[in-house]
Amino acid sequence: MNSKDEDELQRRNRELSILNSIAQALHREIDLDRALNVVLAQVAELFGLRTGWIFLVHEETDETYLAASLNLPPGLADHPALMAGDCYCLDTYQAGDLAGAANVNIITCTRLKKLVSGSDGLLFHASIPLYGQVHKLGVLNVASADWRKLSDDDLRLLYTVGDLLSIAVERARLFARSTQIGALEERNRLAREIHDTLAQGLSAIALKLDAVDALLEYNSSIEAPTAKLKENALSVRQYVKQSLVLAQQNLDEARRSVLDLRAAPLEGRTLPQALALLVQSTAERTGAPIDFSSHGDRQPLPVRLEVGLYRIAQEALNNACQHACAGQIQMVLSYQPDSITLELHDDGSGFDVAEIEQERFGLIGMSERARLLGGELRVESDVAHGTHVHVTAPLAGKI
User: Fold this and answer.
1) Closest Cα partner for 207 from 168, 161, 246, 257?
2) Backbone angles phi, psi at 393, to 5 degrees
């Protein structure tokens, strides 16, 4: 192999390496803003460019907006309004004419052309259209002061990056919609519980307090006989006690409903991140040696699946720390193509699953959560080998 072939091979390997890095970063990143900025930084490295920006088409209004940028020249960075609205490349894209090397390679940027100063020598950019399966998604622009016409290989690479970026945009938007649907399901569930439990309980309290009010009003009358006053006083005490019991029951029900909503540690975190934080805080609080690992191809999960698995992990971990006296606890979260598995194993003092009162260790609650997720909970334990909790649930679309 001569030096020219070696240089070409090294260049190809470098391109593939960066494309692989972009693909992996986009696959890991659910947050769209972070994903777009990752792409811009790595595209700049791949092509030796300094500046890039991405316009996206709003899902509902079809209007374009600046979604991400890298090293915009001062004339644009200091005046965000100049990046709003239409321009030549966006008009061409919306008209469906932004395709092929002739319309992609060297575009005179109307935004840069309008600048009196602060352009950093930029005038041209290349534009790569972003398309979803059905809708237009946006445009990726890259620029450099020493702009040169991109080769066919460079354009091919940019189109590959554009395809990866389009997939990431659609994936992030689907995840956002699934989260909204999950939140709506949670609200609907809570509304049903309020109607079925809290509303009925509060109505019963109101009826009893109405009776108390009527008795007190009668007792305040001058004509009321003494014997009747004593009888009514006993009735008032009974109604008040019953109302207090009902109020406490409804308070417990309200707390249970609130606890079933999205767990606070999951806010702004993925399930693996939340479980890692749970393990860390539990280890610090109890001194128990706990290891956590996550395996497989991570993907967005419905809210109720994340919450259910987190609550099961919380209960299982609490049991292991409080009752097992374990020397080692291991928690493993595994993603499979169609399902997700959570396992917790400790080497502590186990128990006879057939004989133990399941309520004692919250096994009924854990099993019920797994069932509501469309999954299954298995608990294996004996005195000599500790306890193994295994829960499997189908992923989105399978529940």
Assistant:
1) 246
2) -140, 145
What confidence tens digit (pLDDT) does each residue in 37-93 have?
Answer: 888 888 888 778 888 889 998 887 888 888 889 988 888 888 888 888 888 788 778
Q: Which two tokens stand for residue 296?
A: 């497989």
Q: Cα separation of 90 and 86, whole Å?
A: 6
Name the pairing type of β-strands 107-108 and 64-70: unpaired
Q: Report the candidate in 397, 355, 395, 398 with the shortest Cα–Cα distance to residue 379.
A: 355
Residues 100-114 have pLDDT tens digits of 544 566 667 878 777
| Tokens encoding 315 | 């209960």
Cα 105 to Cα 47: distance, rounded to the nearest angstrom? 14
Burial of residue 319, with CB atoms counted within 10 A of its CB: 0-12 exposed, 13-18 middle, 19 or more buried: buried
pTM of the model: 0.50
Helix (DSSP H) and strand (DSSP E) numbers for the chain: 12, 10
- Across 115-129, 285-299, 309-323, 380-394, least confident range: 115-129
Q: What is the dihedral of CA 305, 309, 310, 311, to 10 degrees?
A: 110
Give the bridge partners for 345, in sequence order.
330, 388
pLDDT digits (tens, 9 = 90+) for 231-269: 767 777 787 777 777 777 776 666 656 555 545 567 778
| Percentage of the chain modeled with pLDDT above 90 | 10
Contacts of 310 (CB under 8 A, 6+ apart): 263, 265, 266, 271, 274, 275, 278
Q: Give backbone dihedrals phi and psi of 377, rounded to 5 degrees, phi first.
A: -110, 130
How far is CA 165 from its chain centroid? 19
Which residue's structure tokens are 């309290």?
205
Of 398, 356, 399, 360, whose CA–CA distance to 381 is shortest? 356
Residue of 61, 294, 277, 306 whose CA lies nearest to 179: 306
Identify which of 254, 255, 281, 278 has the alpha carbon closest to the alpha carbon of residue 266.
Answer: 278
pLDDT at 279: 92
The percentage of residues in the chain with a pLDDT greater than 70, rounded to a whole number, is 75
At 50 the three-state DSSP class reads coil
